[in-house]
Amino acid sequence: MVSMTIRHALAGDLDRITEIYADAVLNGTASYELEPPTRAEMGVRFETLSAGNYPYLVAERQGRIVGYAYAGPFRARPAYRFIVEDSIYIAPDAKGAGIGKALMEVLIEEAAKLGFRQIIAVIGDGHADSASVRLHERLGFQHSGRLDGSGYKHGRWLDTVFMQLPLNGGTSLPPDPGSMPERMFRAKGGTG
Fold it and tell me: What is the helix, strand, coil percentage profile of the chain, to 5?
């Protein structure tokens, strides 16, 4: 078995991250983008998540990045601050090797440590056999909704599936005032 390392992404990883995502855009249905973003755009997206203290991870095998995952804001309005949306992409030649599961386990752990209460998966082309749907199910995510025919790509209509995983007691407890999302909100002058 080839060993794998999961670590926080660095700006120097963006060329490979951009390459992996470009393949997903051009050849897959998980992303509803139709044209791959440029390296500069991927840099802006990375910096935005980093500035917000959201977890952004890469998986390396033999010194080469084979996948990445991050958690970012689910929606921009402040009442959503305790919820993150996960994204995960694996290089085509590395799929089916457990990399996605390993990345997601670390991402879930990091999101929990930061004090988030829910992770939402918004899965494009979310049919029952989808590798992403099955992965999220194995990790304890529950189905929470479906938008039929919400995207059109590669000559067909695609459904979007929503799944969610509660963290840190989910909605059974009030927000933790020491959590990262609450500290960031308060630092911006917000009141709950």
Answer: 35, 30, 30
d(CA 190, CA 179): 14
What would the pLDDT profile of 38-86 be if each residue is shown by its tens digit? 999 999 999 999 999 999 999 999 999 999 999 999 999 999 999 999 9
User: Do 185 and 175 contact (CB within 8 A), yes or no?
Assistant: no
- pLDDT, tens digit (0-9, with 9 covering 90-100), for 121-132: 999 998 888 999
Which one, of 75, 157, 171, lies nearest residue 122 by Cα? Answer: 75
- Dihedral sign for Cα atoms in the order 166, 167, 168, 171: negative
Q: How far apart are CA 11 and CA 50, in angstroms?
A: 10
Average pLDDT rounded to a whole number, residues 158-182: 94
Residue 2 has pLDDT above 90, yes or no: no
User: Rounded to whole angstroms, what are the CA distances from 110 to 44, 64, 69, 88, 117?
Assistant: 22, 23, 12, 15, 12
3-state DSSP call for residue 17? helix
Computed on alpha carbons and rounded to an integer, the radius of gyration of the chain in Å comes to 17
Distances (CA, A) of 188 to 20, 52, 175, 184, 191: 34, 12, 17, 6, 9
Q: What is the pTM of this model?
A: 0.95
Label residues 2-15 b or e (16+ Cβ within 10 Å = b).
eebebeebeeebbe
- Provide the sign of the torsion angle of the four alpha carbons 163, 116, 83, 94, taken in this order: negative
Above 90 in pLDDT, residue 189?
no
